[in-house]
Amino acid sequence: MVETKRAKTTDAMEDVPAAWRNKDLASVMLWYYWDKESKRQGPFYPGQMRQWFVAGFFPQDQRIAPSFKGEVPRHSVRLDQLFTRDTAADTAFLAHNDVALWPTAQAQPGPDDDVDEDDDKLVMHSRPPSRPQWLEDSIQRQKAGIKRKMIYGPVERENYN
Question: Which residue numbers delimit the GYF domain (predicted)?
Answer without folding.
Answer: 28-80
